[in-house]
Amino acid sequence: MSSSPEEKIKKLGKKLGANLVGIASVEDINKYAPEGHRPDDVLMGAKSAIVFAGQLTPKGAWHSKGYQVHHMNRSFGIPYRNRIAFDVALYIEEKYGYYAAVASGGNISAKLCAEMAGMGTRSMAAGIVLNKDWGLLNFGVAMTTMPLKPDGMVDEQVCPHPSCVKRWEKEGKTFCLDACPECLSGELEDGKIKWMRYNRHVCATRAQTRSINSFQRTLLEAINEPDLEKRKSIVLGTFFGSVVATVSTANTMGQCGECLRGCPITIKARTLKPKWKPGDPG
Ligand code: SF4
Ligand code: SF4
């Protein structure tokens, strides 16, 4: 039996490296996205958004004592996920004759597209979209004028997990709120999120210390430093070295994700059970 275009597109996205592929309708996205941040702002006449999701790191990176290990293991970075979106966009244009483009450039909320494509729901932890099986995911998005059948939103809120509801009722805390009270605040009511606030300005200065912005800021600091020895130590120091390494590999970071370290959904998603033991055939 021949498969539908939606199935073919999803199969290709997975073959190229996405763990999940979902489709959202532009109509659904436009119910929430303000003007200037809509699919039409990326591609005129866009009808569908195809979302490619990937797990952030191998599960083992969460089990490291060193945070840098977690950071350096980020596997589904911007260049990688945009590459998948790019290849699928070309496939749609060539095979089906509809326009397509990668939704990169900051105007579109990939999280909103992911929610509308049924990949998960917003969480108390920095508004991150959590998937019930995969936990924290990163997203790349391709827009197309092709009218594709959308997956629609999931029926149930993933966050809060029942153990967070219990903890809230007992202590007035959840695991994520407890981990980062500087950036996160909110309340649960009747087992659901009543309100939540994510102070992204505080989060950015704490979590985005290895990025293009930190490269520019540190370079300016070095240029303005009149003392030659101090200037040398800024440029040749380990901090600037790690910023250069991150920028050169495009392995920059949006959020540190520490608020999710104790999240029951993320813990379940990153837990492995060995499927092989010494002596078994390979
Ligand atoms: S990503 Fe890091 S800094 Fe930002 S809210 Fe979470 S724990 Fe706090
Ligand atoms: S710890 Fe996880 S499940 Fe619990 S409230 Fe925070 S994000 Fe939601």
Distinctive features:
282 residues; single chain; 13 helices; alpha+beta; globular; binds iron/sulfur cluster; 8 strands; two-stranded antiparallel sheet
How would you explain this protein's 3D organization?
The chain is an alpha+beta fold. Among the domains are: 5-144, no CATH class; 209-248, no CATH class. It has helices at residues 5-15, 26-30, 39-42, 67-72, 78-96, 110-116, 162-171, 175-179, 200-207, 212-224, 228-236, 238-248, 264-269; strands at residues 20-25, 48-55, 100-102, 121-122, 129-131, 135-144, 184-189, 192-198. Strands 1, 2, 3, 4, 5 and 6 form a 6-stranded antiparallel sheet that branches. Strands 7-8 form a two-stranded antiparallel sheet. The longest helix has 19 residues, at 78-96. The protein is globular. The chain starts with a helix and ends in a 13-residue tail after the last helix. The model has no long low-confidence stretch (mean pLDDT 91). Bound molecules: iron/sulfur cluster (SF4) (2 copies). The site of one iron/sulfur cluster has 13 residues, from helix 8 and helix 13.
